[in-house]
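User: Hi! Is it possible to get a structure for several chains at once, not just one? Here's what I have:
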Amino acid sequence: MNVVRFLWSVVLVVVLWAAPSVAHAEGITAVVEADETKVLVGDVLTVDFVVSKSSRRGSLPNPELPESISEAFDVGQCGGGTSRSIQNINGRTSVAVSRRVSCPLTARKAGTFKIAFTVPDGKKTVASNTISVEVLASEEERAPLEDPTVEAPTDAREDVFLWVSTDKKRAYIGEQVTFRLDVYEARRFLDVSLRTSPTYEGFISEELPLPELYATTVGDRPFRVRPGIRRALFAQASGTATIGASELLIDRRKRRFSDPIELDILPLPAEGQPPGFSANNVGRFQISAKVDRDEVQPGEPLTLTYAIAGEGNIELLDPGAWASLPSSVRTYDPKVTTERSRGEVVGGTRRYEFLLIPERSGTLTIPAHALAYFNPETEAYEVAKSKPIEIVVGGDPNAIVRDDADAETEEGSVVEDPLAPVVSMSSVPRELPGARWLDLQRWTLGMLSIPLIVGLGLGGSWAWRRFGPDDAARSRALVRARRRERIEAAQAAVDSGEGFHTAVSALLQDVALEAAGPEGTGLPRPELFRLLERRKVPAEDRRRLESLLDQCDAARFGAGGGDADERHTLLDDALAVVRTLGKGAA
Amino acid sequence: MVLAFWVAGLVAPRAQADAVDDAFVQGTDAASRNDWGDAAASFENASALLAQRNAALSYNLGTAYAHLGDLGRATYHLRRATDWRAGPTAEILEAARGNLAAVRRRAELDATTTGAQIDRPQTTWDLLVRAIAAPWVAWLSLVCGVGFCVVLYVHRRWFRTQPRRAGASRALLIVLGLLYAIPGGLHGWSVRAASAQPEAIVLGASVDAREGPGQHRSVAFTLQGGAEVRVLDRSPGWSLVKLPGGLSGWVPEATVARIDAVRAAPPRRAMRDDDAVVGKDDTPGSDGA
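Assistant: Yes, the chains can be modeled jointly so their relative placement is included. Here is the combined structure:
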């Protein structure tokens, strides 16, 4: 038992003794931590200095940074804070207080540096653990790539790195070399940007389209590849040409560098080189010629187009001297356009459009144009040729179109086409056509008034239907109109007596029917009067009405109608009855 | 005193008329001698005295300028000669169109060689727009509108209760309504657009169109003399013009002339200072080729 206890005690002592990274002195602990232990010169690493103690007694001292740290690092703005934690285990409460100071350190020089610090604790000094930071000299590391044609890495260097390559290590002057730069990321970084682009001294460079981002595996680790640069380079001088290194900035703190690339640039072979050959004519090209019409009249313009298509630095291509045309053909400087092809190989079509004006009839032959170029694949000079073109210039073969100067001196005209002569008259006509009646103002007024008229008409019609007279009112109006007609007929016949009593009888009959209502229609007179009685027509009025009707009947069917005075009296009585009964009926 | 004024009032127009005729005859005489410079000057003199549109005078002026190689003014006056308001006869109209075509070909050639911008040839769409702006379309839409009102009244008054006649009158109403609304709307749009953006001709041999009103503004493109443009806006001394193709830029006001103006554009001599401002060659016979 004692042996076991002894062994446990030994183990405990050894553990305590073997924990050099944590120093204890009366409860105070000092710890130093860093987020990176291997950086490049210029990189920034964050170092945390932590002081803690497990007692509330006394104040917590500030960590003292060693002066030696500033020899290798630039110390940035430090910040931090104090935290307190309370634990209760089995009824025993313990309190821990810690203070953390974080400092950004920028590596200034290469080497391996140890970082530690001390804190005062009463009369003693507590030392922290020690960490080693290895700073690499980035510039010295970047030797040129041995084989730049390797497109993808086989082993992963770090979580993020640059990979550069070219499609060839050896090229002729003017031959395209495709340069690629990719960013490999094993995990996502917040901010990755290319801080310094590679340099292309001795090259003419053309930007190429970038492929899409893709995923790959490098040494069993998955990586996301972000294509950064694709460039076509055309060397301008022979010898060793260098594509400089580029710098990647990660999360605004860390940097990664690519390797430079050295290329062997060969001069164009002297053997077989055409005289006056341009070093930009390297690649593979074809040439064609065409005209927009092959039959013209003298003085008519036509367009001759040479199209050079192929792969190579088409923008800088030298087409060579153009074939001279006869002096009878007026030639203008060409309009040059370039249509670039999109892809990893630079090329496209370059067009030279000449405006030609043949001034003499006959057959005009445009000779073939030869374009010499160096083909890097066959490593030989080749010649592309267009086909000759024949143009028929119509009209009289002996006729010559005058040039401007001739025309001016002979006729003073500079427009080649025949112009109609001026009109001659002794007096200038003064009469002008009158202004059009339908001017803009009238037309606008008329056009706007049409929907207005239609709207007013339809609106009025609707309003009449909605707010106009109803059936009863229309019926009353009809009755009034008929009564008026009867009275007018009676008045018209009162002197002559012709039809007078018929009109008065009809008038009185209508008034009786109006007073009786719709039930009175078709009733014989005695029944009608009984109905009037039921309708509470005064007896006096009934009696007067009946008397007048009887007088009319007597006059119509009896001995006679009496004289005019009697008819006037009858009419007045009838009108009095009409006024009395008609008012009640209305 | 009153009598003297009355006599003077009678005599002055007569004297002016004689001066116009004299200048016109001088111009035709100079033209018969192929002295196109004198001919143009005499016709300009007659035009200034007449102060109204005249097809014969515009035609002769345009032809004289065409012979001088002043394609801008030639196009301008020949276009005015074909305007109905100038009262062209059938012969003048035909001759003016022929000369206009010749001048146009030359201007296109110059534009091709100098790289200046010129309006594209008229397309079917342009002709359609021009036809829509014609007076007969205005009459058609107006008559159809009035007819619509009449037929609508008849329909509602008499035919509504008669199925056969009601169907026919309804169909007629639809036709008249469409003929009123569609051609009328298009005509109105076309006429308003033409009055808001009047047609003009570039007078100089070639005129720099700038990105803003002012000589200090950079040159956007160069306009060929004789190009037909539309005036979109004005700033003191400058006009914003637009080619039918869509290019627009500011040019000195004196280098373009509206076709619909009653008085013709000032003659070349009077414009010499302006041309100097434009900085382009505008001497007789210079064609830029």
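The mean pLDDT of chain A is 82. The first strand of chain A starts at residue 23 and ends at 25.

User: Great, thank you!
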